[in-house]
Amino acid sequence: MASKPPAPLMKKHSQTDLISRLKSRKILGVGGEDDDGEVHRSKISQMLGNEIKFAVREPIGLRVWILISAVGFTTMALMALVFPNQLYEVVFEEELSSTSISVRLYGGALLSLALILWNGLYTAEKVIIQWTLLSEACYFAVQFLVTSITLMEIGILPNAAMILLLSRVLFLLVTMAYYYHLGRKTKKV
Known about the structure:
Strand content: under 5%
Distance between the termini: 72 Å
Number of helices: 8
Order of helices and strands: HHHHHHHH
Structural class: mainly alpha
Low-confidence stretches: none
Shape: rod-shaped
Radius of gyration: 30 Å
Oligomer: single chain
């Protein structure tokens, strides 16, 4: 009896079958938009999160501002560490009567902030940049208050100190503007 060989089994190739692929993706919950309006290409990217989601949309000039701040903080720190008496005399227009250790400690604190700013310049993480800007803003606010109180106690108002106070207010406003703009949520179109 001559029997026919069985017909070859027809396998369904789900990779080439578009309807099957769409059904599989729908069951897995990928391919469609999520609540944030993002389309995930795989379940893994959906679970782990999309790197684009964490990309920072930086305001124009942010990196330049952080670079200028880092250079300024480093310069002032080195001046305070190496030439404490001269730095004090420039700002307050009088000689430093006590030891220069307080100005050198100020220089050390500035150097620490400068290191934070240098780190913030090279990072891509939004939170680190925000904390960098916030620490810079806190420094400007504290320096404005301390310098104002010191000038009131001394009873003089030198031009160099006035320029320092005005520059600190300006720097505080610029830093807070960047901090605010970086913290805003971008609108989806």
